[in-house]
């Protein structure tokens, strides 16, 4: 029984047929012509594409050694539900996420021991200076953000991160075009050439971070990256002295989707950067397989100020290792309208003077 082959037009997706006049395959919808050998090569390439396979071994963290966690207490916020960890010398404190008082719950239990920790390199003084610099010149800020006492409430907290290592094998196909234009005395011409572009290869990823706390916005934690893992050391409880630690509420398995998203996005950007010399490039198919996928558990240092203004929560965070500072600022609407009114009045006076001078 004869096999019926059907080719789709790479340009518009319509079914194409052999044109006996040109001895080429031709699309009746967009009139694009193709060599038969080119289409065969395209068909073979499509057969080699594979489906995504992003599987991880998530044995991150370890069990606490006997007696090691005896001097660590846990605290819970009755307002936002945040649960934090501190050493036995931690006095009564406020929740770093909503500033309400926290209540001691007892000894640490039910969580894994971190594999690594990056100790704080920048102290509270540096964090306060970083916040002041971030607020400097912001004339429309509410008074609460200019209050020196408020700035003093910035807290150092270790944020839980799951670190994903993997080798990614990728196969990405693009639809690309080159456009050439010219003209003569009668007409303007445009010729568009269509290409199917393949990229395949492997990319190694080490310690792709995903924060393990629902209280810490993912976009904010990504914004204060990168952390320099060269300063990481094996975890010891002594590093918690004087600081708080966020107790993770998103485990490694639940963080896989975000790790996959970050790896996929980075892989697509790396491969796309190699496709050059075309007028347009559109990704058509992306396939990624992971090898040697493993995860580790680490604590990263963050200085945090969390407050509420007019019913909306505002969080400011500084990388406790590098000093990178991020955070959205609220707008004091009353101050804004005073400023806007003054600006409008000033513009009105200037307009009046210009009109008066022109009239002279």
Biggest beta-sheet profile: 11 strands, mixed
Class of secondary structure makeup: alpha+beta
Q: Could you list the spans in which at least 5 consecutive residues all have pLDDT below 50?
A: 334-343
- Beta content comes to 35-45%
Query: Into how many domains do the coordinates divide?
Result: 3
Shape: elongated
Could you describe the 3D structure shown?
The chain has 360 residues and is an alpha+beta fold. The chain folds into 3 domains: 47 residues, no CATH class; 199 residues, no CATH class; 27 residues. Helices cover 22% and strands 36% of the residues. The chain is built from 6 helices and 15 strands. Strands 5, 6, 7, 8, 9, 10, 11, 12, 13, 14 and 15 form an 11-stranded mixed sheet that branches. It has a 4-stranded antiparallel sheet with strand order 1-2-3-4. It is elongated. It starts with 6 loop residues before the first strand and ends with a helix.
Features:
6 helices, eleven-stranded mixed sheet, 3 domains, alpha+beta, 36% strand, 22% helix, 360 residues
Summarize the SSE layout with pairings.
Blueprint: E1 7-8, E2 15-19, E3 24-26, E4 33-34, H1 36-47, E5 72-77, E6 83-87, E7 102-107, E8 116-117, H2 124-135, H3 148-151, E9 155-183, E10 188-211, H4 218-223, E11 233-234, E12 244-246, H5 256-272, E13 280-309, E14 312-319, E15 325-327, H6 333-359
Parallel strand pairs: 8-13, 9-12
Antiparallel strand pairs: 1-2, 2-3, 3-4, 5-6, 5-7, 6-12, 8-11, 9-10, 9-13, 13-14, 14-15
